[in-house]
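Worked example

This section walks through a single chain of length 190. The input is the sequence exactly as stored; nothing has been trimmed or padded.
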Amino acid sequence: MTLTKKDNPALLLIDVQKGINSPGYYGTERNNPQAEKNIEALLKKWRTEALPIYHVKHCSSNPESPLAKGKPGNDFQDFIIPQPNEPVIEKDVNSAFIGTDLRTQLENAGIQNVVIVGLTTEHCVSTSTRMASNYGFNVFLMEDGVAAFDKIGANGKRYDAQIVHDIEIANLKDEFATVVQTEDMMRVFD
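Given that input, the structure is written out below as tokens.
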């Protein structure tokens, strides 16, 4: 991994909201129960090192969604409450870059490297990772700082959450992002 603190990497926290774990809405099972602990560890490190942090919040236009604006599920999870100097980017689609000024904010801050964590691997994390890469950012995707839900395919077959996660990570690896583990990312600050 070729990233150092001097590279001023931005931490993008995608959709770490209370409603994302609503039973049955996104799937019947989720992989990586440690994702939030890893996200929290990275967030603490970024705050300690005074590195840039951007919170992305999904405000669903579907009134039935747990992430609809005004619902309790739209709130950030308790451990991730943004600090006054940490921008909040609200979106209503599955990319942190569409209909927002995230790209402009990152470019205006001179940020070239982004570290992505959040939920879910197969939706907003994947789309935002692809777009960040396409916009020319160096993307580091925290494999153990994201999680996926199981899915039912067009053929009616159920795909296990771990399989969904693994395939999505495999699709993003190398072409769109450098895939990293939390433990390895923490060494950047040693």
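What to look for: Residues 35-48 form the longest helix (14 residues).
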